[in-house]
Amino acid sequence: MTTPVPVLVMRGGTSKGAYFRKEDLPADEAERDRLLLAIMGSPDPRQIDGIGGGHPLTSKVAVISRSADGDADVDYLFLQVQVDKPRVSAEQPCGNILAGVGPFAIERGLVAVAGETTAVRVRMVNTGALAVVTVPTPGGRVSYTGATAISGVPGTAARIEVEFRDTAGSVAPSLLPTGRVLDDLDGVPATLIDNGMPVVLMAAHDLGVTGYETPAQLEADGRLRRRVEELRLIAGKMMGLGDVTDTTVPKMCLVAAPANGGTLSTRMFIPHRVHASIGVLAAVSVGTAAALPGSVAFVDDNPEISIEHPAGFYDVVVDVATAGDEITVGRSAIVSTARLLLSGQVYPREDS
Description:
Blueprint: E1 5-12, E2 15-21, H1 29-40, E3 60-66, E4 74-81, E5 88-89, H2 95-98, H3 101-107, E6 117-124, E7 130-136, E8 160-165, E9 183-185, E10 188-194, E11 198-203, H4 215-219, H5 222-238, E12 251-256, E13 264-269, H6 280-290, E14 304-309, E15 312-323, E16 326-336, E17 338-346
């Protein structure tokens, strides 16, 4: 029998992942990645021989340890385990899984409870950016029960606040990697931005769709998918990310006028599947663009942005100040939830 690995399986925001202490995984990255592929069951479209869910949103891993950074309590490395390829990627962070990092750190004794709520300072290893995850801890324990609902997740759960700090240019060289608010992307007006996640925003009508289609309808449109990927490859080079053929960034976002009372409507390619909702850090980047005059997504300078997506809404608070050509991004925050689903041990395949 193979050696079991301690794990917590948690829902973080609208994603689900396996959360590990760094010390419980191999120190060698190649060995660690082989183990994680076996644990999640990749490469296999169903991930039938592992604990992955057969979709990018449920094939995620968080690796967490105490931080040596004086400004952080824990370090959080996000790893995307590809479903149908033997590949583990650390090229981007994940804000959804981040929502579960605070609860995990408390559950595993990495951070002590501080009162009715406990603020966990997190260094996102993928980018070096800092976030503060505030977790309800009444009675000295993490509470997962509450009245907060987020679109894309059934029911309600305890409110978790996630505040991001210094996320501008987290993966790309800067907030606006090309130095422009609006670019010509092979004839398509686009805003290329990174305030936590590299995102390319384009008006849906410029690609021949409404922006209100379901994810399944968009994924079934072969012409659209090919065009989006062509533009993504061009945008990757423009954003200083190089050849992005085999990477998951930048994300591609189609925007349209709001249909249900929000600020704007979105459909997010991540990058080849269409997100059932929207990722947390992608939402922060989109929300920043929505508050940035001249961008494809600009609506107004209201710091509270309600982003419509296929499953409902995502509310983002972004402070953006402009003075001539200088753009300053202040506070970026979202409200999320998380839930502990399983605490135990996982048994990888013998050949891992």
